[in-house]
Amino acid sequence: MRSKIVAGNWKMNKNLEETEDLLVELAAKLPDTKAEVMVAPTFVNLAAAVRNLEASRIEVIAQNMHFAESGAYTGEISADMLLNIGVDTCIIGHSERRAYFGETDEILAKKVRTALEKGIRVMFCFGEELEDRKSGNHFNVVENQLKNALFSLDKTDWSKIILAYEPVWAIGTGETASPEQAQEMHAFIRKVISDVYDSSVASNVSILYGGSVKPGNAEEIFSKPDVDGGLIGGASLVSDDFVAIIKAI
Ligand SMILES: O=C[C@H](O)COP(=O)(O)O
Known about the structure:
Layout (H helix, E strand, L loop, with lengths): L4 E5 L6 H14 L6 E5 L5 H7 L6 E2 L18 H6 L4 E4 L2 H7 L3 H14 L2 E6 L3 H5 L3 H13 L10 E5 L13 H18 L2 H6 L2 E4 L4 H8 L6 E4 L6 H10 L1
Parallel strand pairs: 1-2, 1-8, 2-3, 4-5, 5-6, 6-7, 7-8
């Protein structure tokens, strides 16, 4: 049975003091929900966030990790470093990593493999660009992203995978995929997974939607049968907005 999940990706926002303030607010305002609630602060504040949320059910997750175990990779963070501070879920493949840091499907496949070998749960992000959507190529693009990074995994690995479909044209733009567009793509993703693996893998994986989710549109998006929650950027930086989105699940 798949989980409902609402995750906040704070990206490169919030210094230490701001991080702690927001966590205190979120912990205090967290509504009663069966959904998993996650936040992904920047690397330098992860350890403090874990300590801050010790008594809370909000999970601290990472925004990225390297595929190598350790070594001469200046500026990078390993899976073991995350585990060592109590972080065992990591976002991999966010479109900003793909676009600004050259992360290819091949690199992402290696990251996913390392994460799973280390026991880190992967929140794998993917989604088409605006030109792909306009040309009607969005289903092919999404299928290839999944195939290149995930379809060599064993069936059993999928219990450690969360998917986050994020159409690039809807990220930080205020333009959201309609609930119908989100549902159509999520249903397609489940069908592709079912064809490659089987229907139990497809029905047990949580598929989140990300891209300009706000308090005003979350409920309608989350009401769709194949949408299991959201990966929230901008609106997760404001406690009342993030709490309202959690309430919508
Ligand atoms: O990781 C989150 C996504 O990039 C969505 O960001 P956004 O809610 O600011 O559009």
